[in-house]
Amino acid sequence: MVDGSLSKAHVRVESFDRSILRRAAKPGVPALDDFESPAEPLPFWRTKRLEELDRDEWESLCDRCGRCCLNKLEDEETGEIYWTNVACRLLDHASACCSSYPNRHDFVPDCIELDPDEVVSQTYTWLPPTCGYRLIAGGRDLMWWHPLVSGDPDTVHAAGISIRNRVISEVDVPEDRLEDHLVDWPGLVPDGTTLPPRS
């Protein structure tokens, strides 16, 4: 017989200490709080345009692969870019980072400082396809090995994306011999890797 006792029982359950429900959960069965945790906020690279990033966010988008610091040759007639395995004199071959980043223009005046508008317009055709700036500008997410995603700066090396152990310094190569060092890998997505879908 329905006499209102069900509604009273329901009120009693709602007034229980939530910690009791959590402790009462069976092994392998999520506790009540597991269903009610707030959603994690989206990372900045999914919510901001490149031109909206602050300086620290902008710098952190670089995955430190070192590919953009390789010497490249451009066909004057077609504009096609050809990669070499010859690295800038300032590039540290172990870390794949610039050894004098804040002062790099003092030593390499033609080192290019990326401009958000130019990245978005894809003017920089020489950025590797896996570059974080290029991916975000193209409406894609970062790759799994990116330090912002993995939380580990070494995943870019472990994934075989960086220039570590694959390059030589321009100090050892005369400029007129760069054509002897043409390679394809800096401009390619590694085998077995798929770029994230466009959002």
Automatic annotation (TrEMBL):
<dbReference type="Pfam" id="PF03692">
    <property type="entry name" value="CxxCxxCC"/>
</dbReference>
<dbReference type="InterPro" id="IPR005358">
    <property type="entry name" value="Puta_zinc/iron-chelating_dom"/>
</dbReference>
<protein>
    <recommendedName>
        <fullName>UPF0260 protein EYW49_02240</fullName>
    </recommendedName>
</protein>
<dbReference type="InterPro" id="IPR008228">
    <property type="entry name" value="UCP006173"/>
</dbReference>
<comment type="similarity">
    <text>Belongs to the UPF0260 family.</text>
</comment>
